[in-house]
Write a structure and sequence with these properties.
The chain has 192 residues and is mainly α. It is built from seven helices and two strands; from the N terminus they run αββαααααα. A hairpin with an 8-residue loop joins β1 and β2. α2 packs parallel to α4, α3 packs antiparallel against α4 and α5 runs antiparallel to α6.
Length: 192
């Protein structure tokens, strides 16, 4: 395959997967009772696919485009964009390690299911860790600066607990859904 053809495919695949991620980001719903600000959606799925097919850096591009377009269309929302920032942080924290581990495992000839499982566990640990760090260190000053809300003590730990549950559920669902999707992708597409 020529370099020009490879670049064209990269741009087309990135554009299509970004558009799909943007659309999916608008279909979110609360999953934790009482925490209506914590929404789950399937928008990280196209980013994971982009990372697996085109490389981990492409997953970051898809995540970034998804969040930027979402903010441009829906605005900053009641949290002044913190939800979108958090979505970007945990999305990248899941998709990049998942894609990197899967691609490395595929190159070493690891069978499909163990490769996806290892990738999913790595993504889960990364996503939960990034969520914990972000919610503990970024959320309090962000809410204080932009919303003039002091987030500390029991309220902070309740928010962190709810977000951690959401991140656990989301990463498990993403991994489970990736099993048949990666099975459908042929080796030629993955080596693109």
């Amino acid at each position: 395959m020529s370099e020009q053809c490879r670049k064209t495919k990269f741009i087309v695949y990135t554009g299509i997967l970004s558009a799909l991620a943007i659309i999916l980001y608008f279909f979110d719903f609360p999953i934790i009772p009482g925490s209506n600000y914590l929404m789950i959606d399937a928008s990280d799925l196209p980013a994971v696919i982009a990372g697996v097919i085109l490389g981990p850096s492409t997953a970051v591009i898809v995540e970034l485009l998804k969040v930027l377009v979402h903010v441009l269309i829906k605005g900053m929302g009641s949290t002044m964009g913190f939800g979108d920032l958090a979505n970007f942080i945990v999305g990248v924290a899941f998709t990049v390690p998942f894609a990197a581990v899967f691609r490395a495992a595929a190159k070493r000839g690891v069978k499909l299911f163990p490769a996806i499982l290892l990738s999913g566990v790595t993504g889960l640990v990364s996503m939960v860790t990034a969520g914990l760090i972000g919610n503990y260190f970024i959320a309090p000053p962000y809410f204080q600066l932009f919303l003039h809300i002091k987030l500390s003590g029991a309220a902070l730990w309740a928010a962190i607990g709810s977000a951690t549950i959401l991140n656990l559920i989301k990463s498990v669902l993403l991994t489970v859904v990736m099993i048949p999707i990666i099975g459908l992708l042929n080796k030629k597409a993955i080596k693109l």
